[in-house]
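Folding Task

Wanted — backbone structure
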Amino acid sequence: MKRSEIIIVTGAGGVGKTTLSAGLAVDLAEKGLRTLVITVDPARRLADALGIAMLEHNTNRPTRVAAIANLDAVMLDVTASWEAITVRHAKPEVADRLIGNPYFRAVADRFPAAQSYAAGEQVAEFTTSGNWDVVVVDTPPAAGGIDFFMAPRKMTELVGGRLLRWLTGSRVPGRRILYRTTARPMLRLADILLGSALLEELADFLLDVRSLYDGLSARAASIDRMMSRATVLVVTTDSPGPMREAGRFFTTLPEIDVAPSALIFNRALPDKWISARGPQGATDLDEALRHNMDRWSSEARRNRDARTAMAARLEVPMATVPWLRKSPVDVEGLAAMVRQADGLDKLVER
């Protein structure tokens, strides 16, 4: 079965990843490619534009975007993803216990690495289904998006790590029985003293999580391979924080065999503003206009120099997406944003 091409849009929070992901998906769909965009917690108006139902429980079912042919969208439901992961990798009785365990719910809902791993699993499911030509991924916000790429290895290390092996025993037959007959009575005694079953639930959780190791390990390896062949677009603006985060992608990801493909500089100010000058009249209004024009001229120059220097330092292709007065909130606006971008179409040519 043919695998989908993968475009991963990543970067620091607040740089416009979700909007850019949606815009790229619209553009690819307009070119006749069956496209799926996977997003995490989009703004309400953007979700409405894509036709994504803002439901409490989304269940990860893609929704056809009515305004354009060939485009589907899905809002990731991390908890539903982890339930599917557990059913896929655990025996039925173990899966039922895990899904009902409060520690499992807490990890699935709140642990950043677990959320990122669940996102990777879901992306892998969609890309191997053969239902789409291209899958565009808006990475989860945890750790500026880097957790999405690191999560498969982190989850494998966590589930198969030394601490968990020490707590639950080795794989030698009988150790689990020994654990249950020696440690479990002590846990029950502690529960009685504490007036709750917290430690007992924790013991069940650790033992059951350990049983997922083989399935998670094999799946993590396939997710790593998926990411290594993806087109990874790192998004930034000219703010110092996002630029530092963007730089981290280009130094960190190659260590796990993922190569960022290009830098997208979002909200780029027009170069023509650099040479703009205000009126030379003598009135207070003329003076105020000239002052504001000079400020915007300096800001546009700083913006241009920042993106040029960063692209040269990282030695990667760069696309620029212009600053817009209003963020796109419909399919037409998303398509127009991509058309106005400089070099973006070349990065995702299909």
